[in-house]
Each structure stands twice: as C-alpha cells, then as structure tokens.
Q: What sequence folds into this?
C-alpha cells in the first residue's frame, strides 16, 4: 500500500494554518468512524484539534431523510485552538439530505464534496427536494467536487469477494482517502486501525484498505481539486506527551485516578442513558483495576446501590444524564443526610423531559445546586472541555472524600462526545487524596464532627463501631433519631457550613486579559472554548474584554466579588436561560451581570459571541 | 465461627426505645430475629440490617448491629451495593407490603433474580400503617380503608407467587405469633446461600387488626394452616391426621397417610407455585413454611470471581497504562 506518486507532485501544495471540515451522511454511512479516523490521524500528525459529532437520537432514522443525517465536525490546526470551529471550510455530503441540512453552515467559497451516486430521483424525494441541489443553484459560490462514490468504490473493489452491499459499506473509507489526499494526511494510521479492527475478517480489511487507497489515489490522479493543502504540526502546545481524548473517556479515567490516588476501590452504579452510557461501558471493562460496575434495574437502584457501596468504604460513583438525575433526587437527599462521600456524574443533554438526547445544553445547574427537597446542599464541579473532564473528575473525588459529601460532576453532550488533545499527566504529579476510616471505638459517635465539620467514616465490619444511619433527622453527635427543633436548626447549619467551607480548599480562578476594564465574559462548563476564542478575537481588535471560567459552581470560589468589581459589566453566555446568571445575581447583587442565553441544542459559535460582545460595548 | 462470636439476644438490643404501637406484631418478629441472629455465630459487626420506609422499616434502629434506614422501597438496591462492596456481611432487609410490593416492586424482583446472598423479611399486614390506614398491594379486593371508603378496586399480589415468579431461590412464609415456627424458618433463611425471601403475616393492631385470624389465630392455626417442611409429608390438623397431595395439575386434600412428601429443592418452581396459589380462607389450609430452597450462584460472588479472573489473565491494572493507552505523540 504505497502512494503511487509524491503527494501533490503536479498540483500546488498550500499551507493552511487552520481547517474545519464536516463529514455528513446518513446515520448508516459511517460518518462518525470517518470523522474519528481523520481525528486520530490529525493527532498523530501533531495538529491541535477539537471535534464535535452531531448525530440523531434514533439509531437508524429512515435512510436518506433529513432527521437521519449524522455529522462529524473536526477543527485541526497548527495553532492553539479552543473550539471545533464555527463554520466548516470543507463539507462532505454523502446524500441530498446531508447536503441541504449542512450547506448553510459552509463558509463562502468553501469546498463541498458531493456523492453524486446518491442523488437519484428517489434520494431527492426522501430528502423532500423537488430539484437537484447539485444543479439548481444551491451550490453557487462554493467549490463543488462531484464524485460518484458509489460507482468508484464498486470499480475499485470489482474483484473483492464481498457482496455488492458490503462493498458499498466501504464508501466512507473511499471518502476518507479522498480527504486525506486533500489535506496531505498519511494513510498508515487508518490502514493499521483497519487491520486491527477487522482482524478476524481479512476480506473486510483488504476491501476497506483498498477503498481508502483508491480515494486517495483519485484525489491525486483525477485532479478533482485545484490543489492540495497541508496543515503543519502545532508547536503552540506545551511540551509533553499527548493523546486525543473524548470527554466521557476522560471522566472514566479521572474516576479511576480518584480511586487510585485515594487507595480505594471504585464502585459505579449506573443505568444506561444517552449521553452518559459510555462511562458505564468503559469502567465495566476495567475489572482488573479494582473497579466494580453494577448495571442496575433503574436510575434509582443505581444511586441507592452507590450509596450502599459508599457506606462500605468504596469510592462510589453513579453516572447519568438529567432525566436520570431527576429520578435519583430522593436518594441524593439521603446521601446528604447520612453524609457519605460519592460522585454523581451528570452528562447534561437538552431538556426538559426527554428533550433532545443527543444535543447540547447546560440547563441542569439549578437541578444540581438546588434540586432536592429540604435543605440539601451538594457541591458542584463542572468540566469545561474533554481533557479538563479528567481533572474535574479527580477534583470531584477529592471533595467527596475530603468532606464526606456527595458531589455533582457536570459534563455535557458537547464535552462527552467531543475530543481534543490531552496533555497526559505524569503519575507523580497527580494529587494524593487522603482517606481515613474510623476504627477506634473509644469515644466513637457517628455524627461527632471534626474541625472541618466532617463526620467519621466507619465501615460496617469494624468491631465496636456498630451504628445505624438513615434519612430521619439525627441528633448532633450520637446520630440517634431526633425531632428536637434546635437540633434540626443546628444540623441543617452544619450541613450547609460544611459544604460552603469547601471554598477554602479551591483556588480563585484566573482572569485572561485586562485585570480591569469594560467587560468580563464569565462562563462555566463546555462554553470555555468558544468564550476563549471570542475574547481573544475581541482583544486583538483592541477591546477591553477579559474572560474567566468557573470550575466550581457550588460553593463558588472566594474572591469573585473583587474580580467582578473591576469590570463595568459581566457577560454570562450559557446554553440555558440564564441559570448561572441568576445564581450570581442573588449571591453578588451589587454587580452588573448580563445574560446571553442560547438554547438551540448547539454550542456557541465564537463569532456570535464576538458580535454580542461588540454590541454590548457599543452601547 | 469463633466462640467469642456467640451472642445473646441482649447483645443485639440497641439502646433505642422501641416505638411500635403496643400489641403490634412487629415486637414478636424483633424478638425472634434477635434470638436467631444471636445464634448464627456471626460477630455483631458483620451484621447489617437495611430497611426502606414504613412501620417495619424502623427495625434497624432497634438492632445493635450496623443498620441503614433508607428510602421508600429501595432497601434491596442499597443492600445490593452493600453486598458488592462487602460480601462478608450478613445482610437482612426488613420491608413491608407497601415498601416491597408497591413502591419497591421493581427492586424486589431484580434482587431476587440476581440472587444476592441476603435475607428479606417482608412484614405483610395488608395495610399502610405509618400513613394511617390505606389499602396496600396485598389488601383484599373490596377492602374498605380510609382511601377506599367504597372498597378497593385493586387485585392483591400474592407475595409468595411473586417471589417464585421472579426466580427467588428461597421462599418461605411464617406467622408473627408463632415464635417457634418463625425461628425455624429464619434459621433456614439465614443458612440459605442466596436471596431468602420470607413473608411474615404481621398483625397491625391499629389499622387492620385480626387480618390473618382466620388462619393464624392460635385456636384455628393447626387446622387452617399447613407447614411445608422439606423432606416431610404435607400433613396438618391438631391430630396431624389430614394431608395434602399433588394430583393432576392441582393440590387436593387427602388422608395423612396419602400426603405427598414435600420437596422444596427441585429446579422447577411449579409445585411451590401450586401451593402458593391456595387461596387463604378457602377449603384447603393456608400453606406456611418453606416453599422453595434451591442452590444457585450469587451475584456478588460471580462479580468478584469475574474481577479475579480478569486480573489473573491481564495482571493487576495500572492507572498509568490506562492513561497512556492508544496513540500518543510528543510535543517538544
Ligand atoms: S400502625 Fe400497625 S404496623 Fe404500624 S406500628 Fe402500629 S400496629 Fe404496628
């Protein structure tokens, strides 16, 4: 499998700093695999990158229809980048539906590769099109590359033993080969991946490898494109060892790290739910890492088993998404009441109710901070990017174990399925988490607190420490059931003070940009990339704009008041209707907070943030 | 079983005042459980009582062992996490008809199919006591309660059939006022490896007094109940002169000499189901005792065995290997 010619021998080779491409096709077209392969190869080449898959909730929506379109966007660069890119430079559309759904996002003058083989009358009808967009002017202003990929693949695999249906399934690798040629990527990583993936079916390895090579050669020989591009390795990243990581994967690894750093076994109780299921699947495979996973009969059983495991001394975790968290709510009140450590992962999705399970939203902040009956404070940590999710998972474990409390770890669909290069931590850099189990019966009382207001963690099986815990209010110290009015006031205060005191163990987040000025753009969760890009752009344009991102949403870190006071206004873009904005208005009523809500199931584009910032500063 | 582990009933009484209504059947059950657990030879620290919500669910507070009074209906789920985390604990779930069969129905059937090694004591009083008298999932159709002034429209669950249907490996029934019988059943339940499900007819003196008198009252008990004892003929009556036998597709009365010999250990739950279906208050006596007792693997043992097997094959996992897995590259 060698390349037939020097890449771009006859065509001009252009260096580009920064490229965004989007693969779009039917859910069955393998666009996610194509995107992931392009990503891995770009990582190996040394680009900085960020990805964002966009797929329907249905596993296989009706073929050829608009709701069935699955997309994968990848931004790769020789510079330090923060988002999967606002608008693609190149779009690959495998059928008419994919084309019409995505074409409006393509940059003017962008490249669009169209698989003509899927543009028959029937295909147009399925996409609810009266005319053929290749011919009706829809694609005016773009560089249009029309290829009959169906036919080309059939030709390339003419002597393959595979059925014609199986041959057509190799289309995505032909397409990938074409795009590899266009952006001068090596074929080897994908060739190797195929060999491993289909090791048991050599005929599939051969066919897909051939399709990949044929696509690559076609780019070269047929001179379809006006030239070839190169995106050199990124040298802006700090030195170190990197790998590409998905947000969900990072959470799984962060939890294993939390267990390793505290010397505990990891217990995960979970019930499958989009988009959190990956975490259960990943941890279920780590049986040789002292990881126990329990796929429960429902969300409630999952959290209850988790609390049971916490009582028995495990690093206990339950993972879910908003609707599942709603079901766990009552049990979380019990976890607060019995003061046992655990981590609750919420990979947020668009709501309310079932909402849009595969779309992006960060609207569960209220649910996390406030969403329980009674006074039931739970600390909240939110990841800001796929790589950051590792550190946040570890931080959530630290807080839980250090303060004997349940902790929310928030992620979202954008982080969960998005990916970026992760600078791998050196093992000795990882923080140790100290855990002490109570063993001494002398003076033991289950709710006797220490200076940090923590109660002792006394494991069943320890002689002399037999005690009962439960959801009824407990007497200070002894933990016996107690309905005394003053005692309830005291216990409620203790629980609140303990959680609020966590702020003394966290750093005030740093500000990027001017230390004081016209505007501070404040974000939390997955909006970090877009906010960083947008505020960079604004600063380059000479605007007095700073940005800051919160990892700890509850309790809020110390020092925010002083920071907010140094700017005329604080803009809070959120993929919800202004949840952090309202929390901050009640916590810091004297500052000028502006909300920028967006709930379209999509992340912010950096460009729309820039526009909003500019319009605010013009006033 | 170390000699030091031998306990007395008193060792298992906690310092908390027992707060059930005077005359409640729960007192008798507590007394019997304390006696049985004391004799198991298990150190007190290795015993854990887990409950949900309801009158019966206050039980853990009165046991001087580890205990967890959790939330309504979910005790089996807490117990599952506890057994996975620490398989060495002797775990007892105390629940009621509302807790186990209504709000917690889902968790009950799932713990039964997974066969965790725990003991479930279902105090069935056919009423909601703690909320002061509404019909429960075991109340008879037509039951007049505060929430059903014109009679309940629900058909009741039969807890024994339900447990058998969910694949329970040990299923038994006993009566609060029959201490000897209860002790025998509880000892067998404790000895069984796997989920032991025990229904206890429990009298709620306040809201459903005498609900089981037609069969459980001392005066009629020997004629109106039949004790299923594995390996023994199914006979009953004051004179032990009456018997039951399986005939065709049902159970019929017969002379003691013609009674079937009870076998609770066969793979099929069908014969147990036949006895479970005998309607209380009908012609035949109400079966109590051990309906089913079969060996099967326990979830927590299998999980730990799987972990050991994978570790044996792949070696103990290292965090570093997970982090540095896949395609990595260097930035200088
Ligand atoms: S209400 Fe009934 S079940 Fe509850 S404690 Fe009183 S007598 Fe017992």
A:
């Amino acid at each position: 499998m060698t390349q037939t010619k020097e890449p771009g021998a006859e065509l001009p080779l252009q260096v580009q700093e920064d490229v965004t491409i989007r693969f779009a096709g039917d859910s069955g077209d393998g666009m996610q695999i194509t995107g992931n392969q392009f990503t891995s190869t770009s990582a190996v080449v040394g680009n900085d990158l960020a990805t964002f898959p966009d797929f329907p909730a249905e596993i296989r929506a009706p073929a050829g229809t608009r709701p069935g379109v699955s997309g994968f966007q990848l931004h790769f660069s020789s510079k330090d980048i923060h988002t999967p890119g606002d608008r693609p430079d190149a779009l690959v559309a495998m059928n008419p539906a994919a084309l019409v759904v995505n074409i409006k996002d393509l940059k003017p003058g962008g490249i669009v590769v169209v698989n003509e083989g899927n543009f028959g009358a029937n295909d147009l009808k399925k996409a609810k099109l009266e005319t053929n967009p290749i011919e009706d002017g829809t694609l005016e202003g773009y560089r249009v590359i029309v290829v009959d990929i169906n036919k080309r693949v059939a030709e390339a695999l003419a002597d393959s033993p595979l059925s014609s249906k199986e041959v057509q399934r190799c289309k995505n690798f032909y397409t990938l080969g074409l795009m590899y040629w266009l952006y001068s990527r090596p074929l080897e990583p994908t060739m190797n991946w195929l060999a491993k993936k289909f090791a048991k079916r050599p005929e599939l390895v051969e066919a897909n490898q051939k399709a990949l090579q044929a696509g690559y050669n076609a780019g070269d020989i047929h001179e379809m494109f006006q030239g070839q591009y190169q995106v050199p390795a990124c040298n802006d990243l700090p030195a170190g060892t990197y790998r590409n990581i998905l947000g969900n994967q990072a959470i799984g690894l962060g939890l294993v790290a939390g267990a390793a750093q505290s010397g505990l076994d990891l217990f995960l109780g979970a019930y499958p739910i989009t988009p959190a299921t990956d975490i259960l699947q990943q941890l279920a495979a780590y049986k040789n890492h002292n990881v126990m996973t329990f796929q429960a009969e429902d969300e409630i059983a999952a959290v209850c088993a988790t609390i049971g495991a916490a009582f028995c001394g495990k690093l206990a975790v339950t993972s879910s998404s908003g609707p599942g968290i709603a079901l766990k709510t009552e049990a979380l009140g019990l976890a607060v009441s019995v003061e046992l450590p655990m981590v609750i992962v919420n990979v947020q999705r668009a709501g309310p109710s079932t909402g849009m399970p595969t779309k992006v939203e960060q609207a569960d902040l209220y649910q996390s901070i406030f969403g329980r009956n009674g006074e039931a404070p739970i600390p909240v940590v939110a990841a800001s990017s796929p790589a950051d999710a590792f550190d946040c998972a570890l931080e959530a474990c630290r807080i839980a174990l250090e303060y004997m409390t349940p902790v929310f770890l928030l992620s979202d669909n954008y982080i969960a399925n998005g990916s970026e290069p992760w600078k791998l931590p050196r093992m000795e850099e990882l923080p140790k988490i100290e855990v002490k189990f109570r063993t001494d019966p002398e003076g033991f009382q289950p709710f006797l607190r220490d200076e940090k207001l923590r109660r002792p963690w006394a494991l069943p099986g320890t002689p002399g420490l037999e005690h009962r815990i439960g959801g009824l209010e407990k007497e200070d110290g002894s933990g016996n059931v107690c309905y005394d009015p003053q005692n309830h006031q005291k216990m409620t205060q203790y629980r609140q003070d303990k959680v609020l005191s966590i702020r003394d163990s966290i750093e005030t987040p740093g500000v990027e940009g001017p230390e004081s000025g016209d505007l501070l753009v404040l974000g939390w969760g997955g909006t970090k990339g877009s906010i960083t890009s947008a505020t960079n752009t604004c600063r380059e344009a000479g605007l007095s704009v700073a940005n800051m991102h919160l990892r700890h949403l509850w309790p809020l870190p110390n020092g925010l008041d002083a920071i907010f006071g140094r700017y005329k206004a604080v803009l809070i873009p959120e993929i919800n209707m202004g949840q952090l904005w309202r929390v901050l208005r009640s916590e810091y009523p004297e500052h000028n907070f502006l909300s920028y809500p967006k709930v379209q199931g999509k992340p912010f584009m950096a460009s729309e943030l820039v526009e909003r910032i500019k319009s605010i500063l013009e006033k | 079983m170390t000699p030091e582990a031998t306990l007395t009933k008193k060792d298992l009484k906690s310092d908390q005042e027992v707060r059930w209504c005077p005359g409640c059947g729960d007192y008798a059950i507590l007394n019997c459980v304390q006696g049985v657990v004391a004799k198991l030879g298990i150190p007190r620290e290795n015993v854990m009582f887990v409950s949900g919500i309801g009158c019966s669910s206050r039980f853990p507070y009165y046991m001087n062992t580890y205990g967890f009074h959790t939330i309504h209906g979910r005790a089996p789920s807490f117990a599952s996490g506890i057994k996975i985390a620490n398989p060495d604990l002797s775990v007892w779930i105390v629940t009621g008809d509302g807790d186990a069969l209504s709000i917690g129905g889902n968790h009950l059937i799932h713990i039964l199919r997974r066969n965790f090694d725990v003991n479930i004591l279902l105090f069935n009083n056919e009423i909601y006591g703690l909320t002061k008298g509404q019909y429960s999932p075991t109340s008879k159709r037509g039951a007049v309660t505060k929430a059903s002034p014109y009679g309940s429209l629900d058909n009741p669950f039969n807890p024994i059939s339900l447990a058998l249907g969910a694949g329970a490996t040990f299923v038994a029934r006993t009566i609060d006022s029959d201490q000897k019988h209860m002790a025998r059943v509880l000892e067998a339940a404790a000895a069984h490896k796997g989920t032991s499900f025990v229904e206890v007819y429990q009298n709620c003196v306040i809201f459903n007094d005498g609900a089981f008198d037609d069969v459980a009252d001392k005066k009629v008990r020997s004629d109106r109940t039949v004790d299923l004892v594995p390996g023994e003929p199914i006979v009953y009556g004051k004179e032990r002169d009456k018997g039951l036998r399986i005939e065709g597709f049902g159970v019929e009365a017969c002379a003691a000499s013609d009674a079937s010999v009870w076998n609770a250990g066969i793979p099929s739950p069908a014969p147990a189901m036949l006895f479970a279906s005998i309607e209380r208050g009908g012609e035949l006596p109400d079966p109590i005792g051990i309906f089913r007792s079969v060996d099967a693997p326990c979830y927590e043992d299998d999980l730990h065995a799987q972990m050991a097997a994978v570790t044996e094959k792949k070696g103990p996992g290292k965090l570093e290997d997970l982090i540095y897995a896949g395609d990595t590259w260097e930035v200088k």
